[in-house]
C-alpha cells in the first residue's frame, strides 16, 4: 500500500502582502545578472535600483498579479531579486506586511520560502 502524498500548502500564493508593503531595493548589477527588464526597474541611487512600484508611500510591486489576501502570483518570479528570495513565510517581515493589510499572522515555517508564481 502506498503512503498518502504529502501536500505542501504555500500561504504566499494566497497573500502577496510583502509585495505590497516594502521597497524592493538591491544593487543594480543583480538586476543585470537576473535579466530583469528595464521597465521593471526604478533607479534609486547610482548603485541601487528597486522593483517599479515599490518606491512609494503605498508600495505595490508591478510584478504582483492578483489581489492581496486572495490569490496572487509574480510575473517576474523566476527573476526575482534577493530581497524577494529572503522573505520567509511567517517571519518578521511577513508578519509586518500581513498586519499592514489586515491579514492574520502565520506561524513561522523555516523550511518554506515564499514562492508565489
Automatic annotation (TrEMBL):
The lineage of its organism: Bacteria, Pseudomonadati, Pseudomonadota, Betaproteobacteria, Neisseriales. This is YkgJ family cysteine cluster protein. It comes from the Bacteria.
Amino acid at each position: 500500500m502506498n503512503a498518502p502524498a504529502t501536500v505542501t500548502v504555500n500561504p504566499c500564493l494566497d497573500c502577496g502582502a510583502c509585495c505590497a508593503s516594502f521597497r524592493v531595493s538591491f544593487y543594480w548589477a543583480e538586476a543585470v545578472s537576473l535579466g530583469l527588464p528595464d521597465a521593471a526597474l526604478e533607479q534609486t541611487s547610482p548603485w541601487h535600483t528597486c522593483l517599479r512600484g515599490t518606491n512609494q508611500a503605498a508600495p505595490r510591486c508591478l510584478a504582483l498579479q492578483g489581489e492581496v489576501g486572495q490569490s496572487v502570483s509574480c510575473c517576474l518570479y523566476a527573476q526575482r531579486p534577493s530581497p524577494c528570495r529572503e522573505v520567509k513565510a511567517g517571519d518578521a517581515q511577513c508578519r509586518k506586511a500581513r498586519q499592514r493589510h489586515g491579514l492574520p499572522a502565520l506561524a513561522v515555517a523555516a523550511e518554506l520560502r515564499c514562492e508565489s508564481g
